[in-house]
Automatic annotation (TrEMBL):
<dbReference type="InterPro" id="IPR050057">
    <property type="entry name" value="Prokaryotic/Mito_RF"/>
</dbReference>
<dbReference type="InterPro" id="IPR045853">
    <property type="entry name" value="Pep_chain_release_fac_I_sf"/>
</dbReference>
<dbReference type="Pfam" id="PF00472">
    <property type="entry name" value="RF-1"/>
</dbReference>
<feature type="domain" description="Peptide chain release factor">
    <location>
        <begin position="5"/>
        <end position="116"/>
    </location>
</feature>
<dbReference type="InterPro" id="IPR000352">
    <property type="entry name" value="Pep_chain_release_fac_I"/>
</dbReference>
<keyword id="KW-0648">Protein biosynthesis</keyword>
<protein>
    <recommendedName>
        <fullName>Peptide chain release factor domain-containing protein</fullName>
    </recommendedName>
</protein>
<comment type="similarity">
    <text>Belongs to the prokaryotic/mitochondrial release factor family.</text>
</comment>
<dbReference type="GO" id="GO:0003747">
    <property type="term" value="F:translation release factor activity"/>
</dbReference>
<keyword id="KW-0488">Methylation</keyword>
<dbReference type="Pfam" id="PF03462">
    <property type="entry name" value="PCRF"/>
</dbReference>
<dbReference type="GO" id="GO:0005737">
    <property type="term" value="C:cytoplasm"/>
</dbReference>
<dbReference type="InterPro" id="IPR005139">
    <property type="entry name" value="PCRF"/>
</dbReference>
Length: 253
């Protein structure tokens, strides 16, 4: 029944139902399971966001910076902790961002942000050219971060390499190997961290980053499996499509 056709009593009951629903269901309770572990991924209190500027050049980088700032403010309003891993800014502009990786910690942050991933697009008139409308894109990826990375990464599956950092950091990074690259041997996925001044901190960041990528990969595999199972049952709903049928013969004595 449409809301505008409800009686006052029905409207009051419906409003009470919605209020109780939001109070009792803070997070979804769907589970993702693999042969190694079972985690309620949608109630995780940690996640990572990837920002990458797409088509549009400097305008796309400016748009990406606006997205980073928007989600930072959204995190603050939700009481979440915003931890930048890596931010690659355009040298000629302090407000342009090519790419960024941020860790977010807070209650049910992944459940609230998981649908924000994808390509975001903006159309606007650039400051440099008022005669045309410029289209810019920026992509966002949301990765769940496990509370205990050891459930995702087995110690024997890691290969660690240390090297000199190519970023800023003064004499410490020039004299010591502070950058680290972790490689997950079974999948070949590798992650490098070099933004911090000390090797131990970079190694911890790389470990968190790699565990999030692997967990997202396993979740995607599970979802793909379930989608395939549903496709087998539903099909494409074309007229020419038909499924096996069963004939039941009832004999009345």
């Amino acid at each position: 029944m449409p809301i505008n056709q409800m009686t006052s009593k029905q409207s009051s009951l419906f409003r009470s139902f919605l209020i109780n629903l939001f109070k009792t269901s803070k997070c979804s309770t769907r589970f993702a399971s693999t042969s190694k572990f079972s985690i309620d991924v949608y109630s995780l209190n940690k996640c990572q966001m990837e920002f990458n500027s797409g088509a549009g050049g400097v305008e796309a980088a400016l748009f990406t910076n606006e997205l980073v700032e928007m989600y930072r403010l959204f995190s603050e309003r939700n009481g979440w902790k915003w931890i930048p891993f890596e931010i690659d800014r355009i040298k000629s502009s302090t407000t342009g961002v090519r790419s960024a990786i941020v860790s977010i910690e807070g209650e049910c942050c992944y459940a609230k942000l998981r649908f924000e991933g994808g390509v975001h697009r903006v159309q606007r008139t650039p400051i440099t050219d008022k005669t045309r409308i410029h289209t810019s894109t920026s992509s966002i990826a949301i990765l769940p971060e496990p509370e205990t990375p050891e459930l995702v990464i087995q110690p024997g599956d890691l290969r660690k390499e240390t090297m000199r950092s190519s970023g800023a950091g003064g004499a410490n990074v020039n004299a010591n190997s502070t950058a680290v690259r972790l490689t997950h041997i079974p999948t070949g996925i590798s992650v490098k961290a070099q933004d911090e001044r000390y090797l131990q901190v970079n190694e911890k960041l790389a470990h968190k980053r790699l565990s999030a990528i692997l967990l997202k990969r396993q979740i995607d595999q599970i979802n793909s499996k379930y989608s395939g199972t549903r496709k087998l049952q539903v099909g494409s709903s074309e007229r020419s499509e038909k499924f096996g049928h069963l004939i039941i013969k009832i004999i009345v004595l």
